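Lab notes, practical 5.
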Amino acid sequence: MAHVKFVELLAEGQSVWQDDIARAMLTNGHLLEMVNKIGIRGVTSNPTIFEKAIAGGNDYDEQIASLLDEGKTALEIFEAVEVQDIRGACDVLRTVYDASDGADGFVSIEVSPDAARDADSTREQVRRLWDAVDRPNLMVKIPGTSEGVPVIQEMLTEGRNINITLLFSIDSYRAVANAYVNALEARLDKGLPIDRVASVASFFVSRVDTLVDKKLDEKIAATDDPDLKGAYAGLKGTIAVANAQLAYEAFEEIFSGPRWQKLVDAGARPQRPLWASTGTKNPNYPDTLYVDTLIGPHTVNTMPGKTIEAFLDHGTIERTVDKDFQGARNQITGLADAGIDLKAVTDQLEEEGIAAFIKSFESLLAGVESKRAALAGSRA
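Output from the prediction step:
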């Protein structure tokens, strides 16, 4: 039986996915326990997660040694390792996928981040990873960049489940949501089924506050006006949630009306907003800030382990994501009045997000190469 908090959260329309994966979670039964006893309904991964998992012990040594015998490169070794873990996680989550008739129970694998601006590379990697894992409850993560949007639509049209990642702005969110609708319509026009095509749009949250708060602190330091200082301070820790809530307002608009209803009648499900980066980075903020404020129908929250523990202990169950759209707009207006351009913030975060994932991926491959060399040396 799932934890009562996650049962109540599901009743509000929100699924919790675990933002973590490692071989040990599969071999020691931890992931299965999180699914059956806690109520986790999905798993996400990225290069940083795999970097920590592979470097953190010897769980992968046997497989790496075997791949070494086959003469595999560091990249080929990593891909074989991640495919095995993701396939195993898909098998654990298959019960959720089947019980929900394909609405939940997904596991995400990511294309290499250096493909974020390369449509051809993204397309090739999505097809390869999809075929390698070969599970119906897989999602392949594609960055929601301007270069990625056409590929996202193409892959969805081909019937592959896609998790669009690195979304920071409402304009980017709208682009990928419309790509999903366009893909379903294209499939329907071809007489193809749409009832098992699934997608989530991963909208990043906490990083917005991290950057905006830094800019607000600079504004506070630059003025002697106590009223301005107070106004700037009052905006801190509010913009990330306001931005996400207004993305949800866009979701409600896009996934309603006659155009969408035609797809629903053919079996379509909405592309759910997925709240990513929901661990609180500022210790002065509540540790469940980015969970309590974004609860609502047709949403997913991906939580790292500490946030899961915190929410189960003292999280609040209440539909909040669409409670005060006008209040959210007021916060964004206040930010503009303070002279901070939210578009410039989200553009910067997209670039920094790509750069950070590339750095993690390079570090990951270096770690695999180091382990590969160590294993080769020990057997010489």
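Observations recorded by the TA: The first strand starts at residue 14 and ends at 18. The longest helix spans residues 342-378.
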